[in-house]
Design goal:
With 150 residues, the chain is of the alpha/beta class. Helices cover 47% and strands 20% of the residues. The protein has helices spanning 2-25, 33-52, 60-69, 93-99, 115-124, and strands at 74-78, 84-89, 106-113, 128-134, 145-148.
Length: 150
């Protein structure tokens, strides 16, 4: 058994050397600590590069920032994957929702949400509306979640 203990230690040393060799085969430099940092930096830089190149934001917060926080004066329809389906002037929100081939999951409106836009959204099956403000409603459909951004 005493010989086994010695072999086990040698195996661990060999395992460490093999781990270092594997890291080197991957084309990474040195100790492995820099590997994690480089990957983290690359991941942090990728979204900034995507936005700078004109790609659409990928999260709901990014869409809200682009449409409402930036006072774009637009309506944006989003599908289930939060991909933009249509952008139009906010004044055309009713027609944009009504004429959309695919039912939008979310509607972002840089303006006041009125009864007419709320009604067509409920009729089409929209799940959520995010608007700058809410108007006065005679009836408020329970099927549509309404959020306002101040």
């Amino acid at each position: 058994m005493a010989g086994d203990d010695g072999d086990g230690q040698e195996d661990q040393s060999s395992g460490e050397a093999a781990g270092t060799a594997e890291e080197s085969e991957d084309g990474t430099a040195g100790d492995g600590a820099n590997d994690g940092e480089a990957t983290g930096e690359d991941a942090d830089q990728a979204p900034a590069t995507d936005e700078e190149s004109g790609d659409r934001p990928l999260t709901l917060s990014d869409h809200v920032a682009a449409v409402i926080d930036e006072a774009s004066g637009t309506v944006r329809l989003l599908n289930d994957c939060l991909e933009p389906m249509a952008d139009a002037p906010a004044a055309d929100a009713f027609d944009t929702i009504a004429e959309s081939e695919e039912v939008p999951r979310t509607v972002l409106l840089d303006g006041e949400l009125d009864q007419r836009v709320l009604d067509i959204s409920a009729q089409r099956g929209v799940d959520r509306i995010v608007a700058r403000s809410e108007g006065q409603f005679v009836k408020k459909p329970a099927a549509v979640q309404i959020e306002t951004v101040a």
